[in-house]
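Input.
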Amino acid sequence: MNAHKFDTNQFRVPANQKISLNDFDTTFCEGFKDKNEADEQLQKDIESLFKLQYKLYAENKRSLLIIFQAMDAAGKDGAIKHVFSGLNPQGCNVHSFKQPSSNELQHDYLWRHYNKLPNRGEIGIFNRSHYENVLITKVHPEFLLKENLPGLQSVSDVKKHFWKDRYRQINAFERTISESGTTVVKFFLHLSKDEQKKRFLSRIENKDKNWKFSSADIEERSYWKAYQKAYEKAISQTSNEIAPWYIIPADNKWFSHVAIGNILVETLKKMGIEMPTISDREKKALERAKQQLLKD
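Output.
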């Protein structure tokens, strides 16, 4: 199986760069002829991820946090299912963040995310994340009132500095966990509005997919432009060397899977994970244990 490598930096958003999502092609496929060719590369990356995960788990000093954000129907669930299919479940945890509970609303918005961070040696996956607090709340600022924050009595109290502070808080959160040993990588699955329409129709027309569709999806689709602007601002303000954003073309699911796989293999390799070594004293103890077992 020949490796089909490509420059994943083309998807990475440089630090402090203002972006427009219109500049990113949702149909980009980086020279892959078809799905079969991409699947071959993905299988190779899955094998590499398994080996790298084993080293990460054995080293037990660092962790990897992977964040997925996207518009509805962009394929977050499918990406998680396919890209991480070869990992050992004992060292990989997926958390899907829905609307905050009444208990979670009694704390700051980062509290529930701190509680789900991966342990040392583990890979953690956030299906939606703390970024919802500068995305859905920016499109629907009335949701902020549920947080019972001081100084926010109505939507009119939400000024520009509020969002600036939130971006700062998110950057500080990610820097803190990074300096504590957690590598952070963030994926925005970039879907076109036309492709979302096709996927919504598929969910409606296929009875086995009906459960995936909600009438609320259509209502949120009406805010498409507002969400695009919210994503542009959030990504521009929070992509950096510590926790980079990658904008992944998502109109072709098979390509988004292989792009994500490539990036994660590169990310884990750059972490410089090392298998633990044992001392001469421990080696002698192992030899004695071996001899004892052989005599048993």
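The chain has a mean pLDDT of 95.
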